[in-house]
């Protein structure tokens, strides 16, 4: 089955271009386009796509508010079969701004990519997010999460007890996730099978009540693990 995608951007030429580039991939099917955040939410509700590629600055409802609505209107424990259950958001923007990225992550986005990324990087990002993983543009990953988490730690005390439910091995794995390592790289680092690492990551997310790896990275920085 192809990965179903909705593209949301207020600039028609940009929106059409992104849709055309994604649709050209044999495993990606663009099922709708939205000119603002409100339209994106309604299309997500009606089409239940795997991924919404979301711009940040849009009229009527901006991309961050739309992301928050989409990620909270289905798929959680209280509403596993809600109208947007399983839909993930990939934020695609021109603006490499710390607060935009952090707000996107806080709103539940599973990925953040800049519009100057190569076409294949965009297609790969859609695949990664659709597969339940998370992705951040390399230019913002460590700088952004480190800086913002540092500022937040200045306001709150680190909470080591936040990790009490994790086993020592799970803490080791989470620390490597927070460094931005893939499952394969973690497996090499900790001398584990890649499938074992994947199992550990799944248990970590479940125990901590996190949506994906990106939230795990933010959580780790906020709580002083790295």
Automatic annotation (TrEMBL):
Membrane-spanning segments: none
Example GO biological process: phosphorelay signal transduction system
Domain HTH luxR-type: 159-224
Cross-referenced InterPro entries: CheY-like_superfamily, NreC/VraR/RcsB-like_REC, Sig_transdc_resp-reg_C-effctor, Sig_transdc_resp-reg_receiver, Tscrpt_reg_LuxR_C, WalR-like
Pfam families, per database record: GerE, Response_reg
Domain Response regulatory: 4-130
Molecular-function annotations in GO: DNA binding
Transcription listed as a keyword: yes
Keywords associated with the record: DNA-binding, Phosphoprotein, Transcription, Transcription regulation
Modified residues (4-aspartylphosphate): 55
Cited PANTHER family: TRANSCRIPTIONAL REGULATORY PROTEIN NARL-RELATED, TWO-COMPONENT RESPONSE REGULATOR
Protein name: DNA-binding NarL/FixJ family response regulator
Organism annotation: Spinactinospora alkalitolerans
């Amino acid at each position: 089955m192809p990965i179903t995608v909705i593209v949301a951007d207020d600039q028609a030429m940009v929106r059409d271009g992104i849709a055309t580039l994604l649709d050209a991939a044999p495993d990606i099917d663009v099922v709708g386009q939205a000119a603002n955040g409100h339209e994106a939410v309604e299309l997500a509700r009606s089409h239940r796509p795997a991924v919404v590629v979301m711009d940040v600055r849009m009229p009527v409802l901006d991309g961050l508010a739309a992301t928050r609505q989409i990620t909270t209107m289905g798929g959680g424990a209280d509403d596993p079969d809600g109208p947007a259950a399983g839909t993930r958001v990939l934020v695609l923007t021109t603006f490499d701004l710390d607060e935009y990225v952090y707000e996107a992550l806080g709103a539940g986005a599973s990925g953040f990519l800049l519009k100057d990324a190569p076409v294949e990087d965009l297609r790969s990002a859609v695949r990664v997010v659709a597969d339940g993983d998370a992705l951040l543009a390399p230019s913002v990953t460590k700088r952004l999460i480190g800086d913002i988490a540092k500022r937040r730690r200045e306001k709150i005390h680190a909470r080591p007890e936040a990790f009490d439910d994790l086993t020592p091995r799970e803490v080791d794995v989470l620390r490597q996730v927070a460094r931005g390592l893939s499952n394969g790289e973690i497996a090499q680092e900790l001398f584990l099978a890649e499938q074992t690492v994947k199992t550990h990551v799944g248990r970590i997310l479940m125990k901590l009540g996190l949506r994906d790896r990106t939230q795990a990275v933010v959580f780790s920085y906020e709580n002083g693990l790295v």
